[in-house]
Amino acid sequence: MNARSQWTESDIGDLTGTVAIVTGANSGLGFATARALLKAGAHVVMTTRSADKAAAAKNALVEELGDASIETMLLDLADLESIRRFSEEFHGKHSRLNLLINNAGIMMTDAQLTIDGFESQLGTNHLGHFALTGRLLDIITATPGARVVSLSSMAHRWGFMEFGNLMFQNGSYTPRAAYGRSKLANLLFTYELQRQFEAAGVDAMSVAAHPGTAGTGLADHMFDRWYLRPLKALVFLGIQTPKQGARPSLRAATDPKATGGDYFGPSGREEHRGAPVLVESNPASHSEVDAAKLWTESERLTGVNYESLRTPTK
């Protein structure tokens, strides 16, 4: 790893010829991640749920960066059909995928279901990216040195897996518990995908990152009530910018010394802020039993399987 404690975007090497997908790239961490990759010369596919937001994000980057290699595509991770359409469109345009940045997500929302009937936070943050990665698996495994970067959170420490009640079907839903579960699922997925890459002899890497505490707008809905609005200014005072919060993802995606299963986060106290470094996730995230159960259930729920990884290459 780079021995310097202050890794920044200037440590990203030349990414000319690299094809990257960044989910949720129209704002916040995704926008900052896409911007840094574009500045390093990558061709970046920015996914958003809205054509208007996609156009606005692209225009802002073109105005700032000039002749950057930007492509926008529609993708709703809470809709398996949208994921299928995106995959088909991407396959029609590209034959390689060097970086898949599974960045998009929702945070501590009220109880609701995705279009496919999944609890929305697990459905968007984990199952959507599980399905997306699986549908792009053939291109990922055909691209030497490809990386899948999954964005987790310090909130994974709140998470717990309950496979008989994965979607909080028994009325036990709370926004906090569901968010923690989805972020724990991101790490269980990351580590299991790396194990499967290794078992299959695939030249690809699965890594994870978390941004610490950053002002991205992800939690804006939590301050909708008028009496909470003054609190928002206090909560966001002094926390990291999206550019700073994106650095762990960018290091995970581009550090030449990163290895499969690495997890990057801020270096500061309790990992809230600071330069991106290797950090440790909790013991629950390393449970191979839970990872295997979640994998099987995710394949069943999404209808997307990773069967090609279960046949080792010769």
UniProtKB/TrEMBL annotation:
SUPFAM superfamilies: NAD(P)-binding Rossmann-fold domains. The keyword Protease does not apply. Keywords: Oxidoreductase. It holds the Pfam family adh_short. Residues 246-286 are annotated as: Disordered. Belongs to the short-chain dehydrogenases/reductases (SDR) family. This is SDR family NAD(P)-dependent oxidoreductase. It comes from Rhodoglobus aureus.
